[in-house]
Amino acid sequence: MKKNHKIPKISAIMPVYNGEKFLEESLKTILNQTFKDFELIIINDGSTDNSLKIIKKNKDKRVILINNKKNKGSVLAIDAGFKIAKGKYIAIFTQDDLSHPKRLEIEFNYLENHPHIFLVGTSAILIDENGKEISRFRKYDDYKMLAWRLRKSNSIIFPSIMFRNEDVFFDGHYEYHLYYKLLKRGENLTNIPNFLVKYRVHPKSESIFDKKQQEHLRDEVIDKFRKLPDTVSALKKVYFSVKLFMHYIRTINEKKIFMSKKYKPYK
């Protein structure tokens, strides 16, 4: 893997720690994107399995490897990627999840056409370790409603996000705190309804393995959100609540279609 001196439009960042089971499949969905102008920064965070061999086996010139001899944790690993990212935008990928081939293309075009939006996430298909669909998370494109909703829960799927490469770091916190920092400094965050990520849940995934710690950190961030000025009027809150309820009903109805034998899920 050689260093790519051309400045790419997108810097894709993927932290890896003992991800040999799904890593190769995940890498294929990144490197086979329809949007080609990107660098892929992989941070091998002290893996003790065959992850490093799988990464080195790939000869794509867009791949840049950071090899941590000791495990530092995903937060510090991603921050290391942020420090060397050259792209106008940064996209996050994870070792277990799969991306739609047009993910980068759709997110790039969205941010190019919506200069008032700093970060965008997408809808996602939840899958098990065998790739079988469990459920779907359909998101809505309304940055004002999302800013209100983030005060109560993390409503952005982290492995789906792309954002502007403008002074973004985790600083020792998880992604929910990142969204808080961005909203505090006046940035707009949103989701788009496209299902562009297959989000895998299995016993060793970070979302399950570190569940108690993430719940504790989530509660801390919610407390910080409560301290931000509340500029949403009572009437607007009622409107957002009704809109969320209608969104929920639509999602339930779609789930019936997705689970029918006639429906063909995206691959």
Write down the CATH topology. Answer: Spore Coat Polysaccharide Biosynthesis Protein SpsA, Chain A
Name the overall outline: globular
* Radius of gyration from the alpha-carbon trace, in angstroms: 18 Å
Helix residue percentage: 25-40%
Instruction: Provide the structure class.
Output: alpha/beta
Number of helices: 9
- Strand segment count: 9
Q: What's the level 1 CATH class? A: Alpha Beta
Would you tell me the overall average pLDDT? 86
Written description of the protein model:
This protein is of the alpha/beta class and 267 residues long. It has one domain: Spore Coat Polysaccharide Biosynthesis Protein SpsA, Chain A (Alpha-Beta Complex), CATH 3.90.550. It is 39% helix and 21% strand. It is built from nine helices and nine strands. It has helices spanning 20-31, 51-57, 74-84, 103-113, 143-149, 175-184, 206-209, 211-226, 234-258; strands at residues 10-16, 38-45, 63-68, 89-92, 98-99, 119-127, 133-137, 162-164, 189-200. Strands 1, 2, 3, 4, 5, 6, 7, 8 and 9 form a nine-stranded mixed sheet that branches. The longest helix has 25 residues, at 234-258. It is globular, with a radius of gyration of 18 Å. Residues 260-267 have low confidence and may be disordered.
